[in-house]
Amino acid sequence: MLFFPTRPLSFRSSFHFPHQFCSKTITSTTTTATMHSSVSPSRESHKVSSSGEAAISVEEWQGWGTTSPIPAMVTQVVDDLKLLQKDSDADMIFGGNHGKLSGDFKVQEDKKHRATYQSLGDSETKLQFFSARQIACRVLGSRGYLCQKCWLPSEDCMCSKLISCPLWHRVRFWLYMHPKDFLRQNNTGKLLWQVFGIQAATLCLYGIAEHEEMMGGALKLAGKDKVWCLYPNKNAPAKSVKDSMAELSFSHVECPPETTDGGHSLNFILIDGTWSNSGAMFSRLKDRYELMWGDELPCIMLNTGASLMHKLRPQPSWDRTCTAAAAIGLLDELHDLPNFVSYGLDKQAKAIEDAVEVLLEALTARRLRMGRSITRKQRHNRDIL
């Protein structure tokens, strides 16, 4: 989640919200009855056998949106789960949202992982263990339930409605994602690699050493003058897109479209997590940047505000926006600069806008079918214009 000065985000395409978005509750008895009669069956519990089914293959791992090998600690967590299942009389069962363990196995695993966490000697290892456990459970618990591409239940898959679009080859997004947002159905960061491809929008999971080292290596190759974070750094003035980019020139740099090593790319890091988690994520990024270059991580402030997803996904306030909306705002503001106007960034922003609409429609249809509210919880009414 990102925070920016409040200005309504200008979505160029028209999108018609259901009339229920305009009211706090759905009061029609007929509508409510219809909704409940069409509720899809609740998610069935997913049972993992002790005969090796729990193992995660490279193909399965990369199918969730990453190019990396399986992280070593994720593999270790999976092996520990299999060993615990073998040594206990309980089945490994996942149920509910976010791949959560359930039943007797959950009780035993909870005791074991807490003991393991306490036994770890330093905060870095504890963070890596926390992240690996979150991710391992989400992958195992989502197997056969979520579509690997769009992270929605298979019956609600929206992949056929998404239209891919090449991102200008001089721009690269890094989705620095918290483990608790990984495989989250209403996550919008996933839309960037679904539309632009995983080379143009790369997933980096917070606390996963292999991912953070991969991103660090690419940023080092690009150089400190080609790295920015879209985050309001309270301890240093954040520059606008115009202040940061208006003087850049590309005419003297040879960079063919097929170049993928990132050496000539403008790298933009998007922090993809809840607002409460973003502070720790930014602090980790800042420390790594200072260790690499001995300087402050440059931050960019966008002139954007609430996105379409505010209609469905509760936010702390209306001036904190989703990850996809931040990417849209950046591309739009870059397009407004004379030195970027010829690269079609406005069309690329529009492609993400369309993807956000597709996601919102899919989530709305699912909630209606399940008889759940499709109105945003009213918080911080003083922020609503």
**Number of alpha- plus pi-helical segments:** 11
Tell me the count of domains.
2
Biggest sheet strand order reads 6-5-9-7
Total beta strands = 11
Class from secondary-structure proportions: alpha/beta
Quaternary status: single chain
Give start-end ranges of low-pLDDT stretches. 3-42, 256-260, 315-319, 379-385
Strand content: 5-15%
Domain DTW: 143-372
Protein name: tRNA-uridine aminocarboxypropyltransferase
Keywords: S-adenosyl-L-methionine, Transferase, tRNA processing
Organism: Nicotiana tabacum
Tell me what you see in this structure.
With 385 residues, this protein is of the alpha/beta class. It has helices at residues 29-37, 58-63, 72-87, 103-119, 123-142, 190-196, 209-222, 241-245, 275-293, 323-335, 345-369; strands at 2-3, 46-48, 92-95, 100-102, 171-177, 201-205, 227-230, 239-240, 266-272, 300-301, 320-321. The chain is built from eleven helices and eleven strands. The strands form four sheets. Strands 6-5-9-7 form a four-stranded parallel sheet, sandwiched between helices. It has a three-stranded antiparallel sheet with strand order 2-3-4. The longest helix is centred in the last third of the chain and has 25 residues, at 345-369. The chain is globular, with a radius of gyration of 22 Å. The model is unreliable at 3-42, 256-260, 315-319 and 379-385 (pLDDT under 50).
